[in-house]
Amino acid sequence: MLKIKDYFCPNVKCKHYGFRDMNNLVKAGTYTCKASGENRQMLKCSVCGQRFSETHSSLFAGSHYSDKTINSIMVCIADGNSIRATAKMLKLSKDRVNNIVVKAVIHAETMLSSLLHSIHLKDCQLDELWSFVNNTKKLTKKASKLHSKKT
Ligand SMILES: [Zn+2]
Q1: Does pTM top 0.70 for this prediction?
Q2: How far is the CA of 135 from the centre of ligand 1 (A)?
Q3: 106 Cα–ligand 1 center, Å
């Protein structure tokens, strides 16, 4: 489990929705996940009364696999293994591994989109960002030219 300050109330109608470290969350018991057999923490928002699992809105929510298995799948995929190779190594169903990876991709896209929306840039900052990208491209071209001369 993350630290309690890293969670936020998932109730969109709550005034603390989306805000971390507001001191509105308390631990509210545990439950055993039927699929994985692992104990999970329940949290409660003291403002709106919403109860939710520590895995709410995460890759681990509603999964038939344990957190450890999901972590192993993600490590194998991140190391460049295919879905089939990952399933074979971990002795899992190829379809289920594929479902976990698809769920992870959707979750990552959602997180990235959410994070990009929370960045409030001004025109000047966008101009600086564009200059940085252009300079990086120039440096990359110079580096590849130098590399091709050496080989
Ligand atoms: Zn709330």
Answers
A1: no
A2: 45
A3: 25
Asked if 116 and 61 sit in the same domain, the reply is yes
7 touches 43 (CB < 8 A): yes
The DSSP-derived string for 76-139 is: HHHTT--HHHHHHHHT--HHHHHHHHHHHHHHHHHHHHHHHHT----HHHHHHHHHHHHHHHHH
List pLDDT tens digits, range 24-35: 999 999 998 877
Question: What is the per-residue pLDDT across 99-149, written as a single tens digit (0 to 9) for each?
Answer: 999 999 998 888 888 777 777 777 767 677 777 777 777 777 777 777 676
Amino acid (one-letter) located at 138: K
Residue 63 backbone dihedrals phi, psi, to 5 degrees: -85, 150
As residues whose CB is below 5 A from the ion ligand 1, the structure lists 9, 11, 14, 45, 47-48, 50
Residues 27 and 61 in one domain: no
Range of the structural domain that residue 71 is part of: 57-120
Report percent pLDDT > 90 for the chain. Answer: 46
If one counts the domains in the chain, the total is: 2
Contacts of 44 (CB under 8 A, 6+ apart): 25, 26, 27, 28, 50, 51, 52
Q: Contact 27/4 with Cβ under 8 angstroms? A: yes
